[in-house]
Design goal:
The protein has 414 residues and is α+β, with helices and mostly antiparallel strands. It is built from eleven helices and twelve strands. The strands form three sheets. The chain has a six-stranded antiparallel beta sheet, with helices on one face. The protein has a four-stranded mixed beta sheet with strand order 1-7-6-9, with no helix packed on it. Strands 11-12 form a two-stranded antiparallel sheet.
Length: 414
């Protein structure tokens, strides 16, 4: 490039080659075509240019963690009224219950941090489980025993990244217990923002290996008056700057911010599941925004409104893998079509209320047998999921963890 301006013009021209970068793209086992490879390079270049316009950023920090008793907050109240169809009981002059400090901050900035959401021992166990599950899922897909989409979700700039869909047994159940069960901070907060009728939308683990590229900024869902969903990213190891922490732009979950981000045309944000970004890059808008980095310790989490602009940073470390376990809850009033990083057997099957009831019934255990001899809600869904796995001759194989049996043992259904 002869000058910075010429270089920028040429780069934007390259980016215009079909660039419409949704958060999800090609499955991990498919080879990119020449055109797809060029598009990925343009997407990566866009991510780098966007980052150059942003402030360096500071760490996302946790507020004082206060719990709300029987919370009814923004979004949750409307959902409860429509889904459960209860009559209004408020008397004239009464006021809605005030939001907790965390819910207030989440409403204002679109992202909050909660420290110590998972215990150190469980973090280590879950990390080892995820690595083993990834090996098994990769082998099942490669051997034709399982469909790709039943085990992996799609991502932008997939090279050196993985989005693994997780089962409902073993450490993931223990994680849900600590995240949503009695005494948790996240559980009451989610009840405030989506209500007990909120639906589990994602249960997975994102892995970013050394060399993974800077992603472009994006919202996971377009702007709508009622936020569609919330995602909690939980670090499975300490995250430092060179590992490529998630980058958030607080306050960008609003209609005004989306309009500015999409160059004055809010309709561009509705063109895809996560919105479409086309040149020109909104340089002035990006320079004006505060930047927060998910520099989390192992077991800490960041909960964000999916309308908040964010992206995965480049992992520039030599040998540090960044893993983040995550769950998402969908507002039952959501009007947008949402990505579902969730095994097919679990989709639209678990509400926040049902999950809390099942966790209470488990009472700290990871499996249970109900009065009818079944394995409880999670166990039944996990058995359905196991039917996705078949041996090379078509016989069904079931793999699920159980107390008293080894994880990964196989049972043939006749």
């Amino acid at each position: 490039f002869q000058s910075e301006q010429q270089g920028r013009t040429m780069l934007l021209s390259l980016l215009h080659i079909g660039l419409a970068a949704p958060c999800r793209t090609r499955p991990p086992t498919m080879q990119a075509s020449g055109l797809e490879a060029e598009r990925n390079k343009a997407t990566a270049r866009r991510g780098v240019m966007e980052r150059s316009f942003l402030q360096p950023g500071t760490a996302l920090v946790a507020l004082e963690q206060k719990r709300a008793a029987n919370p009814i907050g923004f979004g949750a109240k409307a959902a409860a009224a429509q889904v459960k169809k209860k009559k209004k009981t408020r008397t004239k002059g009464s006021r809605a219950r005030p939001l907790s400090a965390l819910a207030t901050e989440l409403k204002a900035s679109g992202v909050v941090r909660i420290d110590g959401a998972l215990s150190p021992a469980l973090v280590e166990e879950l990390r080892e489980f995820v690595d083993a599950e990834r090996v098994q899922a990769t082998a099942d897909v490669k051997a034709g025993r399982c469909d790709q989409k039943a085990r992996f979700a799609d991502l932008v700039l997939l090279d050196k990244r993985c989005d693994l869909l997780l089962p409902l047994h073993g450490p993931p159940i223990a994680a849900l217990q600590e995240l949503l069960g009695e005494g948790s901070v996240l559980g009451p907060l989610l009840q405030e923002v989506v209500g007990e009728a909120g639906v589990l939308q994602e249960l997975a683990c994102l892995t970013s290996e050394p060399g993974s590229a800077q992603q472009p900024l994006h919202p996971d869902t377009p702007w709508t008056p009622i936020p569609s969903a919330y995602t909690a990213f939980i670090a499975l190891q300490d995250v430092d700057v060179e590992m490529g922490p998630t980058l958030y732009l607080p306050g960008t979950q609003t209609k005004e911010a989306h309009t500015s981000f999409f160059g004055g045309d809010l309709s561009l944000g509705n063109a895809g599941v996560s919105g479409v970004r086309r040149p020109p890059i909104p340089e002035e808008f990006l320079r004006s925004r505060e930047v927060k980095l998910g520099l989390l310790k192992a077991g800490d989490l960041a909960l964000y409104n999916q309308q908040t602009l964010h992206c995965g940073s480049a992992n520039e470390s030599r040998d540090k893998v960044r893993r983040q376990f995550y769950i998402s809850m969908k507002n039952p009033l959501a009007q947008s079509k949402l990505c579902a990083s969730l095994r097919p057997a679990f989709r639209n099957k678990l509400t926040l209320g049902a999950m809390k009831d099942e966790l209470a019934a488990l009472n700290g255990r990871r499996t249970r047998v109900d009065e009818g001899g079944g394995r409880g809600l999670f166990g039944k869904l996990d058995e359905v999921d196991a039917l996705e796995v078949r041996d090379t001759e078509g016989a069904v194989q079931i793999r699920f963890g159980d107390e008293g049996s080894q994880l990964g043992s196989e049972y043939e259904i006749i």
